[in-house]
Amino acid sequence: MESDLNKGAAVSRWTNEDLLYLLAFAVALLMRLAVLGLHPLTEHEAGFALQAWQAAHGESFVMVSHPAYIQLTGLLFFLFGSGDVLARLLPALAGSCVVLLPLALRQQLGRKAALVAAFGLALDPISIAISRQAGSPAMALGFLALAVYLWTQRRFLASGAAAGLLLLSGPSMVYGVLSLLVSGLIVRRSAAETLSPGLNKDDFRRFLFGAAAAILLPGTFFTNQPQGLAAMVQSIPDFLTGWLPGAAGVSLVQVLLALAVYQPFGLIFGILALLDQRRGSHKLDPQLAVLVLVPLAAVLLYPGRQVWMLMWVMIPIWLLAGRYLGEFLTLPEEEDRPFAYGEAAFYVVLLAYWWHNLAKLTTQAGLVVPEGYSLTDLWAFDPTARVYVIRLAVVFLVPLVLLAMSGLVSLGWRGNFFSHGAVWGLGVFLVFYLLVAAFGFSSGSDQLANELWLQGPGSGTIDEMVTAIEQISIQQTGTRDELELVYQIDSALLHWLFREMPNADYSPVAPENSLYAVVLNTEPDFGLTVGGQFYTGQHFSLFLRPDWSGGAAPPDFDRWLVYREAPLQSDRVYLWTRVDLFPLYQPAPLEPEE
Amino acid sequence: MWWQAVLWYLISSAAGLAVFPLVFAIFPALADRGYTVSRAIGLLIWGYLFWLFSSLRVLPNTSGGILAAFLLVAAISLWVWRRAGSQNLMAWLKEHRRMVVAVEALFLAAFAFLLLLRGMEPAVLGTEKPMELAFINAILRSPFMPPNDPWLADYAISYYYFGYVIVAMLAKTAGTSGGVAFNLGLSLVFALGAVGAYGMIHNLLAARKPANGTAPAGVPLLGPLFVLIVSNVEGFLEFLHGRGVFWSQTADGQWRSAFWSWVNLDNLKLPPPGNTAPGELRHWWWWRASRVVADFDLFGNFREVIDEFPFFSFFLGDLHPHVLVIPFVFAALAVSLNFFLRKEEVKDPIGLFGLRFLVSWRDILLGAFIFGSLGFLNLWDFPWYVVVFAGAHLLKQSRQEGWAWQRVLEAGVLVILFGIAGVVLFLPFYLSFSSQAGGIVPNVINPTRGIHLWIMFGTLFVPLFAFLGAKAFRKGRTAVLRGMGLAALVLLGLLGFSLLFSAMIGPEVRQAFFGVPDLASVLGEGLSRRGAAVFSALTLLSLLGLGLAALWPDPGSGEAAELDAEDAKPDRFAALLAVVATLLVLTPEFFFLQDLFSSRMNTVFKFYYQAWMLWALAAAYGSAVLISQRGRRLAGWLYPALFVIVLTVGLTYPVMALNTRIVNFSSQAAPALELDGTANFFYLSPDEHAAVDWLKQAPLGTLVEVVHPGGGSYTHFARISMNSGQPALLGWVGHEQQWRGGGDEIGSRQADIEVLYTTPDWQTAASLIEQYQVVYIVIGNLERSTYLVQEAKFTRNLEPVFQLGTITIYQTALLDN
Does B75 touch chain A (CB under 8 A)? Predict the structure, then answer.
């Protein structure tokens, strides 16, 4: 019998390009999975995780949204037990699939462009941040990417399944799908040519079958939770409710700020791709431009806007940026190379210096000019003020210097406004910026609470509180979770934290005639009450919320920009422990009888 | 808030549009292809799928669940459309755009009219409106079906609540509050009823002219006119009474009137109030029109009987099941009419036990769904519309296959098939429903007086007698005599059976119902009263006789008979409606359904209402036919003249009622149209309003509020649960007893609630809280004024989760996380 090799059948081999995509995917996975359990779940995340836990335990609840997350994470919980990491696992995995989109479009985009976009998406801060949240919208994006990739590979059944899972991914999918549809209507024929060469009815039927199977099976947790179907459809009224006046959305300023702060790489080069037409336009440019502008306009117009909606803008921006940068991934002509290297180095140094000054500027917390004095007076006798003013000048002047330099060079040297050197230099600097921003997930709770992409309040010192409770429990019962505890705060996070403590009860009113070992409430004076006199308490921070004095931007903007530091407001909870539980407790001596 | 009305219009229209392809396929024999009932059927199918899947815990009671049900309806309809051929439907719509425009204009006009009417007096106050609002709010808050009983915590509603599910479904889709949904629901029902009635007349008239298949756009307006606007004669009598007509003053200054004494209607048998100007009417004068018929027990004590008609119901503004069912009645009649007019033989007719039917199993399923839904909407209607269909089947089959007693058996089996299938399709409802009905009781001593019957239905009798008389006499004297003979047999049979039944029931039962155990006294008094009410019997006998004569097969043969047969089909159908309606009115003359009232009040109420609907349709159709056939001779102008008189008399009530409403509205300090029925509650203070708003957002839990010592029905008690949707431990006691056929489920709740409020002992209160799993305890002015509330125990031991002014809500530790 002849082997396939001897028959001369084609054997697939991994090319360098494939390996690079694999690397991009690995980077995406790494960025999304690393230290996934570093921070406790937030209140927003806990709401979803709790429902998944309830699904896993067969409890009765009303599923209101995101059935894909709840059903599939419920399955994970059922198989492996529940936890913070598992609660965030599926969005992280799905979010990593975003790198498949450039892979799917590499024929149309160009190979280098697609690679750049893939790495960019792997490292995109918003994408990473959103992918690391339980119940996040990243699943919608991930399933969309998967559906598109599989479609282009003509695996229509699997593509349909991914599309079905997309429909199960909560209200974010409505926003994304609508934006895509509107964009598709605008670009119509060219989009059809790009995505559907040679499609026939059977292919479409297979796609529909896959979608139906995904909706009916995982969507209903294999018929155990049929209300998943209603939760899928609930996305539509939830989306429509966001259009009503008074819908709870973030301000326009915050969205634009997020775009500038988290996406400068994609934004700058994406804009350059559209503006710098002297290198010749690409046939995908108009479509990508529409794909950027339509969801961006929708975000800006939508009263219920959230920062995570920018993830639908981020993809076409990166594709555009990749398209632009791809053309600079070749070496310039030999005679220009030294100049290009020099220009790049100059850019990197100047920008690094610029960032350094910006960072230093913030540590001086601004400059206060006392009454009766002027800036000139301060300059004359206060060295600190002098340094401050110089740094301020550097921060404003460096970009101007760079632009002026590039302009002079292009006028006097080469026709292109931005030459290789400028692009390389800017690119290198922004890569560092991107990496720093992308690694924001490893920052402390305070910094996380100040991030714009966070939905709801951040978690405070919950870990410490849980540790304290576990210690008390071990001391009293020998196990971590048998402690008798009552908590009086209706919080999804607390329900999640105490979900597997059989003796933990939620009660808005402290039950009378029973002295729980631990009481958790928001009453600072509980210890002074009749029932509370047997308790001693300590406070923790349950939630951290930005306290920006009602403003859309942080009050000390540059400090926030560099360090993500800004005033925070803490929601305190008080952990009241029964005094007799302390090892050194001694009851008060009895009064001698008369 | 008015934009909510726009939303409701759009949503109901979307339901109609989504389901029209399906309806188009179902009603091939109707000229309008079911267009006029497509909204009603759309809401019906949508509501049914949502209710069924929610009862099975597949769809939660959320906007997502409701939308999922809608998408399913749309998907089914789309599938039918693609199979049937979309070009067919579009071509039809193009060809009939005049009718479509007319129907849409009528719908909008009717909707706007009732919105204005309710906007002038939107309050959900008085009669049973609080109960209806309580149902809507309870359904809005229930996570799944069946919905929580708002006035008996831990139980589901035991009532025919499907209409409220549809209203709440629309409310949830549009984001409407319960108070606004109440008035929007009423307005929508009115508009749906208007187009449904229009469609019936349109289809009947179009079937009379098979050559062009159309009818003038304006004539079918007689349908909604007679069904929804024309009222009984009581309004005209009020007009006369208010002007002192037929009153004369005696020498000693007393006012006397033989006429008004003979009419013997409360308020009208008294002279007009001296302190009002001529023409001015007394407060709530319009109420009397629904209390025309009067019963008296053997000792002469008055027993109230209710005889509402549609305009009264909409003017009063009660969103009761008998009102909610109106649009769907027309859907049911459309099914029967489509079957009756259908020319093609059905491909797979049913054959059972040697009996042959002209329907397929698909027809049974469709009929079971539509008729069965009537049972879920207003239980009393289910059997009667099945009887209409069975009657149509009997007529059609007799015509096609000749008369035989087997036809009656086949019609009977059809009723059983529809009955069984209709119950099975709505099984989750029947499993949770307990009826107050306790059997059939003979009515021996309370026939309806003739004058009262004519006051009630006179505006319909005139066109009915004219139309049926013309039809019957056209068939010849033999047909008339046969009809009368058969009618007499029916009447005598009913009388005889009633008398026999009264003899068979024991003396204890006679004592309970008639006040005396002695059969001879009962029969003697009964026969005497029947003699006094002979005019009523003659009226019903004549109507039934003429109707049966009109249904009799045509004696002619040959070509003329064939032509006549086609033309006669809609006439026969109208006659069938008249016959069934007559049976509806005849039945309570001899029997009634036993309930907590132990009288025929409810039976007359429900049966007369449906009789009005059917007679009004027949009268509208008959008027259209008679006017179109009037000819040029003097006698040909007789009916048009009578028609004008009938309209004048029948429209007096609505005109006067509207005038009263406008005057009352204009006389307010700051008149402003309002749709929220709870906006200016006089018995909910601003503090209590705020408490209700808080409770609407709070988690579901058993709520305790004061219960009136007398039960609280028709009062403002149970105000918090009614408005918030939170289930009360106990609300209107009397109504709960009615719904459940007794007080077993209520147990000792009423007494225990009083103890809970009044005991100073916390342990006693705590044990009651634990027993009933109470979560919220309301203490407001009403509680304090009804009970001697010992609030200190709550203050010491519970958490006040809401406190504003005079109202406090305490929450116990029993709320689930």
Answer: no
Residue B188 has a pLDDT of 98
Query: Could you check whether the bond before residue B146 is cis, i.e. omega within 30 degrees of 0?
Result: yes
Give me the pLDDT at residue A210, please.
Answer: 94
| Best mutation target, B7, B61, B62, B694, to test chain A (most A CBs within 10 A) | B62
Measured CA to CA, the distance from residue B74 to residue B445 in angstroms comes to 54
Q: Tell whether A322 is covered by a domain.
A: no
Closest CB from B57, B64, B817 relative to A231:
B64
Residue A594: predicted pLDDT? 47
CB interface of A with B, residues 94-113, below 8 Å = none
Tokens standing for B386?
A: 């099945």
Is A561's pLDDT higher than 60? yes
- Residue B504's contacts (CB-CB under 8 Å, 6 or more residues apart) are none
Last residue of a domain, one of B653, B675, B705: B653
Task: For residue B375, give the H/E element and its range.
Answer: helix B361-377
pLDDT, tens digit (0-9, with 9 covering 90-100), for A84-111: 999 999 999 999 999 998 998 888 888 8
**Do B333 and B471 reside in the same domain of the chain?**
no
- State the smallest CA–CA distance between residue B71 and chain A in angstroms: 9
**Cα B150 to Cα B139: distance, rounded to the nearest angstrom:** 9
A64 and chain B in contact, CB less than 8 A: yes
Among the listed residues A167, A166, A122, A161, the one whose alpha carbon sits nearest the alpha carbon of residue A31:
A122
pLDDT at A389 over 90: no
Residue A550: pLDDT over 80? no
Residue A137 near residue A170 (C-beta atoms within 8 A): yes
One domain for residues B726 and B593: no
* Span of A318-327, B432-441, B495-504 with lowest mean pLDDT: B432-441
Distance from CA of A209 to the nearest CA of B (A): 16
Domain span at B262:
234-291
**Chain B residues with CB inside 8 Å of A64's CB?**
62, 64
A/B interface, count of CB pairs below 8 Å: 69
Query: In the numeric block, which tokens belong to residue B662?
Result: 């406008």
Same domain, A360 and A469: no
Mean pLDDT of chain B: 88
Indicate whether this model's pTM tops 0.95: no
Split at pLDDT 50, 70, 90, the class of B672 is confident
Query: What is B658-719 written as a DSSP string?
Result: HHHHHHHHHTSSS------TTTT-SSS-HHHHHHHHHHHHSPP-EEE----TT--TTSSTTH
The answer to whether residue A265 sits within a structural domain is no
Give A-chain residues touching B59 at CB under 8 angstroms: 226-227, 229-230
Task: Tell me, yes or no, whether B628 and B723 share the same domain.
Answer: no
Query: Could you tell me if B603 and B694 lie in one domain?
Result: no
B38 and B167 in a common domain: yes
If asked whether residues A168 and A50 sit together in one domain, one would say yes
Q: What is the pLDDT of residue B274?
A: 55
Question: Looking up tokens 């106990």, which residue turns up?
Answer: B730
Give a yes or no: residue A93 inside a domain.
yes
Residue B558: inside a domain: yes
Whether residue A318 has pLDDT greater than 50: yes
When scoring A234, A244, A486 by the number of chain B Cβ atoms within 10 A, the one with the most, hence best to mutate, is A234
Full domain range(s) for residue A538:
460-581
What pLDDT score was predicted for residue B213? 46
What percentage of chain B exceeds 70 in pLDDT?
A: 94
Angle between helix B97-120 and B2-26 (nearest 10): 140
A502 touches chain B (CB under 8 A): no
| Summary mean pLDDT of chain A | 82
Q: Is A507 close to B813, i.e. CB distance below 8 A?
A: yes
Structural domain count of chain A: 3
A234 and A351 co-located in one domain: no
Q: Which residue has the higher pLDDT, B653 or B680?
A: B653
Examine the domain organization and report whether B464 and B574 are in the same domain. yes
